[in-house]
Amino acid sequence: MIKQLTIIVLAVCLFSFGKQDRPTIYLIGDSTVRNSNQAYWGWGSLIGEFLDTTQVVVANHAMAGRSTRTFRKEGRWDKVKENMKPGDYLLIQFGHNEGSKPDTTRQGYRGVLRGIGQDSITLDWGNGEREIVRTYGENLRRFVREAKQIGVAPILLSMIPRNQWDEQGNVKRANQDFGLWARQIAEEEQVPFIDLNEITAKKYDKIGPEQAKAKYFPGDHTHTNYEGAMENAASVIEGLRNVEHPLVKYIK
């Protein structure tokens, strides 16, 4: 009996050690990375379907409605940093909630300054509360640098494309603003960049606006259903292969 209990305890300990020893892929972003998993899905909820999760853990900390500014302001980034350890990975995808002019109104609560510069403004919320608002690029830069300080390997991704089309019948790209700025920060900080916007947009271009809407977008032009989230997760995997990232070894 004692021998059997000893074997069980050893097995539990080995299992626990193996679990802790696995690297973790942390995801931060907005609703297109993590959603309700009902009518709308985020690709971060499905990325594990493509990975060997006996060897790597996926921790999806993205939150609907957040921007690079509010993800930090609400303390969500601090909680992620508390859990990260050397050897982990961080995938960063924001851009959908950054566009409003930053101010103290409800509409301006999520907004950031445009570009990648280090300029900032200070907002006065009253009662002595002041907030420094930075550019989208600077917010990404800080995520990357703080992750590196812990020994975590960051990857920047452009945001998934919206169901919006130009006059030529192609999906509108984000390569002149948020996608461009994410790429520029990746190059500056010498971290991998996955152009998720372009990879998925090419898929939409092939099937056209009517089929893309019917197949992937049950409501608005931003949030996808399960099939759309799965397609975006597949695009992330394609992006990892394109940049020949070490995470490729965990792909099924």
UniProtKB/TrEMBL annotation:
Location of the SGNH hydrolase-type esterase domain: 27-228
SUPFAM superfamilies: SGNH hydrolase (SSF52266)
UniProt entry tagged with the keyword Hydrolase: yes
Keyword line: Hydrolase
Record-linked Pfam families: Lipase_GDSL_2
Domain of life: Bacteria
InterPro entries: RhgT-like, SGNH_hydro, SGNH_hydro_sf
Keyword Membrane in record: no
Descriptive protein name: Rhamnogalacturonan acetylesterase
UniProt similarity note: Belongs to the 'GDSL' lipolytic enzyme family.
Lineage of the species this protein comes from: Bacteria, Pseudomonadati, Bacteroidota, Sphingobacteriia, Sphingobacteriales
